[in-house]
From TrEMBL, chain A:
Principal location listed in the UniProt entry: cytoplasm
Protein name: PCI domain-containing protein
Region of interest: Disordered: 453-491
PANTHER family: 26S PROTESOME SUBUNIT 6, COP9 SIGNALOSOME COMPLEX SUBUNIT 1
Stored SUPFAM superfamilies: Winged helix' DNA-binding domain
Residue ranges annotated for the PCI domain, each copy included: 254-414
Phylogenetic classification of the source organism: Eukaryota, Fungi, Dikarya, Ascomycota, Pezizomycotina
Species whose genome carries this gene: Trichoderma parareesei
Cellular compartments annotated: Cytoplasm; Nucleus
Family membership: Belongs to the CSN1 family.
GO cellular component annotations of the record: COP9 signalosome; cytoplasm
Keywords tagged on the record: Cytoplasm, Nucleus, Signalosome
Pfam families listed in its UniProt record: PCI, RPN7
TrEMBL record, chain B:
Alphabetized UniProt keyword annotations: Cytoplasm
Pfam families assigned: COP9_hel_rpt (PF22788)
Coiled coil residues, start to end: none
Keyword Protein biosynthesis annotated: no
Domain of life (superkingdom): Eukaryota
InterPro entries listed in its UniProt record: COP9_N, CSN3
GO biological process per UniProt: ubiquitin-dependent protein catabolic process
COP9 signalosome complex subunit 3 N-terminal helical repeats domain mapped to chain residues: 53-279
Identification of the protein by name: COP9 signalosome complex subunit 3 N-terminal helical repeats domain-containing protein
GO annotation, cellular component aspect: COP9 signalosome
Amino acid sequence: MAASTSTQPGSDAQAYAKSPDVIVTELPKLDIDLYIQNYVAPRAKANFVYLVVVVLGRTRYERLLLIGKCCVPLRVDALKAAVIEAKSGSDVTRYKDALQLLRSVAPDEPEAQRDEEWIERTELANRTETARLETELKGYRNNLIKESIRMGNEDLGKHFEKIGKLSEAADAYNKMRHDVSTTKHIFDCGMHLASIAFQRRDWATVLSNVGKISNIQSGDDEQAQQQAYTKVASGVALLGLGNYNDAAVTLLHTNPNVSPTEYNTVASPNDVAIYGGLLALATMDRVALQNRVLDNQSFRAFLEHEPHIRKAISLFVNGRYSNCLSILESSRADYLLDIYLQPHIPTIYSMIREKCIVQYFIPFSCVTLDSLDAAFGSPNRSVEPELIRMIRDGSLRARIDTKNKLLVAVSPDPRLVVQTNALAVARKYEQEAKERLRRMNIVVAGLETSNSRKQQSSAVGGSEVEDAWYEDSGSIPPTTDQAAEVDVGET
Amino acid sequence: MDTLRGIFQAFNPDVKAHSSAKAFDTAARNYAASVTTNLPPAARAAILQQPLEAIQLVDPLTNTIGHLAIIDILLRGPTPASTPRALILDEALRFLLQFDPVQIRYVGPLFKSLLDDASSFYTPKVAVELLSNAILRIDPSGSVFTSTHLNMAKLAYDANCIEPALRVFDADILYYLRPPAPMRLELNDTALQPQSYIPAAGLTDVVKSTSVLEYHFLQAMAYISRRDWSKAQSALERVIGHPTKDKGVSKIMTECYKKWLLVGVLKDGKPPTLPSYITSSTRSIYAGLSEAYSNVASLFPTDAAAALREEFEKRRAVWEEDQNLSLLEEVLVSYQKWQIINLRRIYQQVSISHIRETTLSAITAETLTDDGDVLMLISEMIESGMLRGELQIGSTAGESYLTFHEEYKLMTEAEFAAEVARCHASIEALTKQYRTTNERFGTTKEYAKHVLREQKRMDKDNADAGIGFDMNVEDEDLMTGVLGSV
């Protein structure tokens, strides 16, 4: 079940990702609930601190901005930090964006004042730096020193990336590839390109670049570091593509002994635990969860960062589904503030929920709808519509009995199944054999419909058959004895 | 009259009276010639003068050849006013119901012309009955397509009397004929297959590809008018899957494709899938010409009743132009029925009021307003066999419940065995037909050419380039190579 459903909801999630505004308006409503709001603030605060501390590079700004956009209680703090973050770099567009958001939220904050002088100064500095690097690169080119050209391109790419010109940066990084000479260079080049693709949310490019560097042979230490990076990066990219099962498997193989600095431009170890754990929960069955997640020594190290994910998984494995769901529900707000997870959360959660319902139902031949409501429904909402949808999708093999308020398991009579299948096959065979015989006879009698009038006049009469009639294959079954013999042979 | 008797009773129709089957064949041929083309004008005149006596001369069942000749002369020639035409027609009718299927092969063309004119002699209903009877008497399996098939189908469809034609429509047509082979057949040979004797006896005109298409089209229309969707669908499939050459698709095929989409929806509640043997070029031609229809078909299994209705209203002109309006109305009516049928995948028992709330009528694009209407609709569906289920009537219509049954009924072992045996037998029979077809194809000019060409190719492949590897080299001299040791 997991494998078949993993791709489809993902495509929904991608459509969903294009309009994150939906979440922005919805989230405050969710948080109105006092309990959750109380819970979100300190939890997310911790998150907030960790984000700033742990995650490096340009994702830091992105994460701050997302929290600023989506989380009401934290948005002023987050946006202020985003403004400061942007100002410490040299990307003017980012500063302007963050500033605009902050002004709409809290116009009176000192950070909300537009720093024209900084903007002008930075823009000027950026221009000179670009010009300088380009001249330098030209010089290297004239001297035809490969290594210098490569470094020149790398510097230029880094600079462009820093000032937010992503397509120019990608061009420069791509040019690096012509002059690579060691495996380390190949790895750097791939990593730079993947990083650009991450910022553009171009998951397919991430995967192709990561794929190119994942097979590089190098020393043991380096190998381990590269493995950690490639696993995390491709895991996140697969998540972005909505390929949940593969993403989970990839993330579960991440090496825990590598320092997080190798991959924290993409995600922190906490993120790895959350992504891997949630996706595994959404796509794997109980046995697989036990063997591949809970008993997995290397992933256990990650799960220690996020004990409640581990708790949720072990609750699921032990069959305590409603507890598992309530743990996940309590962290929903946190996960919604994650840049990579946000668009997929509704899908992943509903997949987990569906799995819980299916698992809950397995030991029974029928269950009252009331007990299902008690286990999975909320006070004012029945699970019935959800059950109907699941039955329609085919994920739940059951029927609803509205008279007795029951959910009844479907237990097909194996004899009936055999009978219907056998007869269907026999009839189909008979039908097809007749149809083929008929078509052969039509063709040999020259009664095909024809396109051009000239040929039609000859074909219609039936006496003339084109010499090449048996050569044009297409729809016409091979009319000579082979076809006849094949079918006869099967009987 | 005595001369007549001399001519017409010269032939002994009893097979046993002849020394061999071949002797019977020769005698029958000579006799057929003597009573038709070689009949003296005086004898012809005598028949026309005394019709009643002439008819009594021979018995239609035992001496079919002679009787047909007399009937033919009487029907076409001027008869005396004293003999009412109705009498002759009655005689002809009796003949058509009783003729001997073997003897008739000797007077094929004459018989065919009688069949061709049957519609002008009798009312359509009688004519259809007579034609279908004649077709199945000549060829009990009904597997050979003849020009009479098409005539009958046209007549039946135009006069809207499908019933008598059904026996012919239901038979699977497998053979389409090439003009008769020049070799002479013994027409009374019992082992002779219908696909051989029908053209040899001249019992059919030359058929064109359009007549084949038209016949199956009319067949489909006949089933549609009886709402037998599954048979209609397979008939339409025969038209749309007709073999094509040079990417040609005829108008009748595209028209049928449109109907096929609608009929498929009515039969299965979802858009049908094209059979695998239809080429991709044909598929794309169909798809390009029937967008409106495929829209309707793809909307049918969804919940979008309003969209379906809108599509129907918007393209009304198209439906009218293609003369598919009534079929589309049928589709709209059955929309809700299929919605209810699809509920069986979700519910085991469901209340009528719940059905009313969850299913939409495509005619109004809203739910029905009254539980009673829903109840009526469902009981209609159960009665017609469209839905397998059971109604439990409560105190009000809304409190009544529908219990869905399994889609298929469990058969007893005996029934199942019988059904399997039937399939086995029919596949066995098909195997034989495949064998004969194979033989038939083996003797065609094209196949002979193909074999020759293949042989030539094989010869070419076998020709060894230079030194053959087949050559047995026992002791190779490394210095001089293979050649040295030869």
